[in-house]
């Protein structure tokens, strides 16, 4: 009797262990939450919602976007960092979250190097150097000549202190040895409005919110800050072609989870993310918005983040940008 009881208990334990192992391996077994650290409707939100829909189809579970805006992405980033590392809370971390904030804030509620698992890249938003329609300079060299003739007299708007548009301006100033007057705004929309009206003269802009203005002739683009010309702006030279070699600048976004995310979960999410980014329909949709898909393996994305941190921390330090 005792032997029979022991055998039954052993069989039950094996069955339970097998069921538990099966449950642990059946990721995802519930909806996945995608944290977006910005308000609904912006570029970051649009990218996330498009990719979440397609990834949900491959994962077999809904991927639900949850917006947690505020504090230069710090609120959303901290939420991700403090979540359980089970693969059910992941989200967007961008150049501000991972490369700019650590250099601009003396104290952060997250550690960009230790508190996240890097899953993969999402997309790049190329930056272009634009000017007001009535601005006299017709190319970058004419702009540089004007600035060098009267340092500090040519204004350059940004979407706010420490934003990708501001940091790109500082890199441009450092690489060209010029002094443009920075005019920060609360967001890119009012800055673009004043650029169109000629209230400010120049501005680094990202393509998604400004593409229609560029194509409509409401602002003029002198150069793109990318290694090659852009297919959607084929007649606009690169910075290197315009006489500023080695200048590249773009806003970028990646996909992260909390630290210590299981490798099997990371690989599954990366697999479906890369498939979504490479899908012809998705790729075309993003490129129409001026977004370059950025599929990367987890290790590759980690190396990319570290190289961006090194580059921009030097630029930010040289420009003495502090946000606290």
Automatic annotation (TrEMBL):
Signal sequence region: 1-23
Protein's UniProt keywords contain Nucleotide-binding: no
UniProt KW keywords: Signal
Pfam family, one: TctC
InterPro entries the UniProt entry points to: BUG (IPR005064), Bug_dom1 (IPR042100)
Superkingdom of source: Bacteria
Protein family: Belongs to the UPF0065 (bug) family.
Protein name per its UniProtKB record: Tripartite tricarboxylate transporter substrate binding protein
The organism of origin for this protein: Alicycliphilus denitrificans (strain DSM 14773 / CIP 107495 / K601)
Record lineage: Bacteria, Pseudomonadati, Pseudomonadota, Betaproteobacteria, Burkholderiales
């Amino acid at each position: 009797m005792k032997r029979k009881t022991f055998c039954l208990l052993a069989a039950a334990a094996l069955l339970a262990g097998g069921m538990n192992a099966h449950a642990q391996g059946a990721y995802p077994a519930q909806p996945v939450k995608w944290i977006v650290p910005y308000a609904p409707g912006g570029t970051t939100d649009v990218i996330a919602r498009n990719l979440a829909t397609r990834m949900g189809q491959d994962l077999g579970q809904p991927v639900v976007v949850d917006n947690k805006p505020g504090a230069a992405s710090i609120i959303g980033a901290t939420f991700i960092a403090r979540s359980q590392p089970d693969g059910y809370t992941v989200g967007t971390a961008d150049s501000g979250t991972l490369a700019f904030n650590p250099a601009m804030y003396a104290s952060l509620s997250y550690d960009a190097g230790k508190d996240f698992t890097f899953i993969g890249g999402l997309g790049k938003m190329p930056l272009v150097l634009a000017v007001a329609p009535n601005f006299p300079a017709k190319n970058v060299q004419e702009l540089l000549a004007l600035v060098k003739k009267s340092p500090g007299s040519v204004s350059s708007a940004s979407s706010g202190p420490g934003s990708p548009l501001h940091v790109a301006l500082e890199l441009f100033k450092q690489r060209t040895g010029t002094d443009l007057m920075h005019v920060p705004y609360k967001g890119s929309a009012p800055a673009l409005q004043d650029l169109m009206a000629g209230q400010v003269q120049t501005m680094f802009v990202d393509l998604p919110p400004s593409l229609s203005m560029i194509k409509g002739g409401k602002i003029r683009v002198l150069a793109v800050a990318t290694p090659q010309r852009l297919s959607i702006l084929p007649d606009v030279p690169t910075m290197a072609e315009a006489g500023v070699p080695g200048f590249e600048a773009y806003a970028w976004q990646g996909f992260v989870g909390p630290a210590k995310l299981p490798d099997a979960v990371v690989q599954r999410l990366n697999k479906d993310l890369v498939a979504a980014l490479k899908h012809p329909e998705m790729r075309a949709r993003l490129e129409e918005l001026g977004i370059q898909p950025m599929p990367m393996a987890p290790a590759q994305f980690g190396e990319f983040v570290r190289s961006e941190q090194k580059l921009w921390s030097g630029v930010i330090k040289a420009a003495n940008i502090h946000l606290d």
